[in-house]
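Example record

The entry below shows one chain as it appears in the dataset: sequence first, then structure tokens.
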Amino acid sequence: MGVIDTQGLSKRYGQIDALDSLDLSIQPGITGLVGANGAGKSTLIKILLGLLRPSAGRATVLGHDIRVEAQQIRGKVGYLPEHDCLPPDVRAIDFVVHMARMSGLPAHAARERAADVLRHVGLAEERYRLMGGYSTGMKQRAKLAQALAHDPQLVLLDEPTNGLDPAARDDMLRLVSRIGQDFGIAVLVTSHLLGELERVSDHVVVLDGGRLLRSSATRDFTGDTGSLLVEVLGEGDAQRRMGEALVAAGVRCRPRGQLIEVDARGGPAPHDLIRDTAVDQGVGLVRVQVEHQRIEDIFRQETDRVEHA
């Protein structure tokens, strides 16, 4: 049994299927839930928390049935909602203490726990400020702190990087990684930005239109494609000359933007040949790197396969 298990889970709004017969098992670790807006990610999280009732099917969270044990689930699960929900006239420390008390912690333990999680998320110096004056990044950190306040076994993070600039986005992803790897808390994190999930997730679940497209270990999504990406610099059309020389040497390759994509499957060891060809052509070899698949590519392939099935 996983930390989350669903069988035939469905949610209908009139003629629209927000979730369509979803069979899913999520194990401990960090699981990325990816899909475009409207794919069913937020609907799934709300059903798992007992905030929405499914139209059909069943699900368990940490072994508890969502239909009859929603209160027990919420006592063991932390939740970071997508949208801004923080009271602007309340200090972060008071808010997190309140959320910890709501989860059953006594007053003294709640205050200690609140100070601890606010330090972990980087708000130790700002915990006595009113949250209405927080930046977007600080608000997301405060929401993360309250999700951790009661020492949950599982946290559900709905678009935790939403609205953040690149630096704040990187900081949030590091926090998500730390929660799963250092704290040992199971994490289900949603995002419509596919590249984010490659960085932090052990496992990726892809939803589209409420249906499960694929559920695999991240390494299965991002495995070696069998190609090398080569970048060269030099006078004139260095890329063209390098590519033509590689083809003349029996290497299959093609231009890819400012790079050369080299088929590295079979044949002689390509690295030595690429190096020697660059020397012969008088071009500078900037990099030779293994190309990995990206979740974005897999998502597109799976979507195309379903549409043409």
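Notes for this example: The chain has a mean pLDDT of 88. The first helix runs from residue 41 to 48.
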